[in-house]
């Protein structure tokens, strides 16, 4: 495993939690293993692990980008990750307000509904 992959796995676990990463690793097959390795090294090891901005700020950026692009499943996962990144509900709302202005009200409206549902689920557990 490369240094970036090792750093990426550590950051991935810090942000998403051991349970999520363990499930993803257990579900990995020979077919998608190269993809899992790519995201661990590139996304988590080379981008999320940079020390130029905080995990809170990266979390907000990621949520805004996922919402703007309509990546709903990833959006819910990253909203759950706010429990570990330090981004608050208010931070998420501010990020989604930016989505409304720069990417469209329908995308933001849909993302806000996902955020509300995800935060409610997090409060129940």
Automatic annotation (TrEMBL):
Q: Which GO MF terms are attached to this record?
A: peroxiredoxin activity
Q: Which Pfam families match?
A: CMD (PF02627)
InterPro entries given for it?
A: 4CMD/NDH-1_regulator (IPR052512), AhpD-like (IPR029032), CMD-like (IPR003779), Decarb_PcaC (IPR012788)
Where the record annotates domain Carboxymuconolactone decarboxylase-like, the positions are 34-116
- Its protein name is 4-carboxymuconolactone decarboxylase
Organism in which the protein naturally occurs: Alsobacter soli
| Organismal lineage | Bacteria, Pseudomonadati, Pseudomonadota, Alphaproteobacteria, Hyphomicrobiales
């Amino acid at each position: 495993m490369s240094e970036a992959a090792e750093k990426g796995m550590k950051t991935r676990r810090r942000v998403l939690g051991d349970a999520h990463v363990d499930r993803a690793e257990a579900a990995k097959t020979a077919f998608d293993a190269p993809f899992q390795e790519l995201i661990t090294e590139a996304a988590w090891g080379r981008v999320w692990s940079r020390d130029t901005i905080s995990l809170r700020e990266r979390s907000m950026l990621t949520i805004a980008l996922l919402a703007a692009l309509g990546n709903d499943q990833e959006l819910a996962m990253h909203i759950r990750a706010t429990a570990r990144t330090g981004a608050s509900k208010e931070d998420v709302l501010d990020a989604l307000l930016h989505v409304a202005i720069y990417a469209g009200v329908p995308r933001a409206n849909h993302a806000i509904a996902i955020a509300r549902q995800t935060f409610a689920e997090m409060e129940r557990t």
